[in-house]
Amino acid sequence: MSAITADQNPPAQAMTRLKARLDSPWINAKLISGLLLLLVVATTELFGPLIVDPKLALIGSSPTNVVPFWVTNFDKKQGFKAPNLEHPLGTESKGRDMLAVVLVGTPRTLRVGLIGATIGLIVGTALGFIAGFAGGWVDTVISTLADVMLTIPGLAVLIVIASYATELEIVNMGLIMALFAWPLPTRVIRAQVLSLREHGFIQLARLSGASTFDIMFKEMMPNLLPFLAASFTETVALVILATIGVETLGLGPTRIPTLGMTINNALQQAAIFRGMWWWWGPPIVMLVLIFVGLFLMTIGLDEVANPRLRKVRTQ
Amino acid sequence: MRGLTGKYLLKRFGMFVLTIWLGMTIIFIIPRLAVGDPTSALLGRLMSKGGNVENSAELIARWKDRFGLDQPLHIQYVRYLYNTITFNQGYSLSAFPATVDDLIQRTLPWTIGLLVVATLISFVLGNAIGALMAWRGTPRPVKSLLPFSLVFTSIPAFMLGILLIWVFSLTLNLLPYAGGFDRKVSPGWNPEFILNVARHAILPALAVVLVRMGSWALGMRGMMITADGEDYMVMAQAKGLSSGRRFWKYGVRNAILPQVTALGVAIGSIAGGFIIVEQIFSYPGIGSQLFRAIQDNDYTLLQGIVFYIIVGVAIAVLILDLTYPLIDPRISLKKN
Amino acid sequence: MSEELNQGLGTANRAGNREQTAAERPPVSPNGLDKEVVLAIRNLSVVYPTREASIVAVNDVSFNIFKGELLGLIGESGCGKTTTAMAILRLLQPPGMIAGGEIILAGKTDLVKLEGAQLQAVRWRDVALIPQGAMNSLNPVMRVHEQIGDAIDAHVTPRMSRDEIKQRILTLFGLVGLPARTFDLYPHELSGGMKQRVCIAMAIALNPALVVADEPTSALDVIVQRIVAQNLLDIKNRLGVSILLIGHDMGLMAQLADRMAVMYAGNMVEIAPARTILTEPLHPYTQLLIEAVPTIKTRKPLKLTEGLTHDLRYPPPGCIFQSRCPLVMEVCRRVRPPLKETKPQHQVACHLYDALQ
User: Is the omega angle on the peptide bond into residue B191 within 30 degrees of 0, that is, cis?
Assistant: First the structure.
């Protein structure tokens, strides 16, 4: 007989427990690296004012067209000025210091995203729960409305709103963005609630007399967490994308810079063709970091929510 | 036509009408939330911003007459709805006496042409990449290269557009960066013009394709992995079918269905994102026109463009909805 | 009916490596001794490697499937019966893998050694599958005839015309009692029983030597179960195809099977003709299984406790059934009993019968 004998010595218990903890789906490389990236970007909020005077981000606060400090070969005919360590990333044509612009603009852009997505997620989750639990015509109304809102290009309507609003500050901008941020979470949560409702453990809780509130928050919420988190990061990205879009078209805040407004200024002043890459470059680098961070978090959270996506990598 | 039941048709067409109606209503409400009567508020804003409106008296007269601004709000609303759906949206403020509909219909073909082509290319390429990434039979070298096609997935298309201009137009001097065609070629159905248009379309299209491709690929990868776990895939293997047939008729054929649904949901945001791509490339479509309308404070044109975008997206979604039952035989049953 | 079917398949046999068509086969006597072995499984082992230790799902299993017989493979959930079936079909899903042994088809081809195109060619033509979950085993976006047709298309050379394929599929429908209109339907338009019969029709489309039926009736209601079971008997009797029937329903097995093989925790514990298993089971586990079958007239307490009592990753030395065996002896704790022929056609793996040889 060539029977196969398995390893007879169970490994040490402590090791198993440690491994089990590391095996937690939330310990996901993509999720964590995305989160770290965003945290680094978010520190501009704290350290920005320590590094540079925020006032330098306003028009006329500095000499115009100074090149970044490491540039030695520049076109004087274009009116570019020699590098100057007071303005390490240079300045643009309206006399804003680029380092100050980035350090002031990045947290403002992040804030719009967070405000819009948080409100959108809260409203969307509430509507998703209501639709999933109530069913009937309530469900029909909510999900039809969500579908219609998803079809209407949010950016287009936001442009109309922004063009009529006189002065849009960060909070108002975030509130307007929330108008178009709720349908996505609504759809996701509604679908999950509908499928969870049919699960044995929810039915059991219901039979044992748990209140609807308990079922929602004690039984369902833990299972919905990865979906909620994934739609949050996705919604933050969508809101920032829409905000940047509106601002790039020249709508939105006009005095204190945001990343989108900076890109709009650069485009208006033909910075691309004048070779002023230090004007459009820094806001784009920051935005790429933000979007890549959010993207990594979203796909990491997708893997947390959907174990099948994880398995494939090991094969 | 299998699966195309009357109920399904009615429901989809209802969604179509609802979308356009809601869009129009939003456009109607927003200006009226501003204080004062819309026309004078609007003109007041124009004056205050230093824009000098020619023929303003005539404009106001015609405007008031057409919208019945002396009438109560609900009459205004009905008139507005009627005028808008009959493509009679009045005059442009900045290019009077040109009408809004004329101006838009001149630029619309550029946008539709480029957007449809770019969306289709990104959808096909992205799904192919995603399907191959998930398929066990994909050769290893191919599989290890595929993820590199997803580098640009997370950044907005217009930002990639800026980078593409910088690299391919300004640094390498390979492709044109602005406009839809060169002034020196005469527009018409001649090969020189078509080639010129195609050359101008490459970079904006590339910006959309590279960015969108990745999200299709990721979605398709997930769907293929799900399909791969289904019993019918095991059956297909047991039947000794060739790898190609299992991939196409059993894997992709099933996995593509939710992707088509997702395309319907994404069309709105694709169109929205494209507005800004056009502006970056000064492409002669409605995105650039919208940008100019904002700069000129041309509110009638701006609202008209937004209406056209909403209608265009709604039509695209309707077409998708109507073709979907043709690829998913279960659809009529699922709705019941 | 059988001849009619074989006419259509003349082309398939030209390409196949079987030397006989069903019509040429000698009549089969279920209990005859001079039987031809269709499939011989020798020392088959299947493992699922995990991070800490491998789970041995099938451990050193050997048995024969004879021509024209219905062999019932029985055991409780998780005993490795389905894994054995999937190994025979070479359909183990990773990380599961065949760790050793041979699966000899028609005395010649070792299925374990086949790869790629060769494996593809053998599949369905020689060994077909009636799946467990007929609900999801049909491709939802293909019509029934396309799904049967593509199996025929993939194996029959030269290619049959559309008309020939259609005729053939309608003949198959006749065999399993499906109406002709089923031809153009989609899976979602069929009832559970019809789906399962489509699967049976599909399985015999190429007149294979062996059909593996993996709990084909488990998801069906009792009436439909009877019909599907009758279908299985019909195709066995009319086409002379061998069937490996996987199941846990002793009652159903007793009515269908010619021989029965009993598995426990990845090991084969007893193989004997169905009647013998039912009347004089030798292995204590089989005895408990038979006793556990309820009858309408008498109610009896269940003696068998549910589930395995050892960790599959760390099987105990000695007999695999020791912890649940009512007759356990000292030797059972040390030495694993091999599967041995204790009576004619009756093999058992138990120390109780050591003296009998």
Answer: no
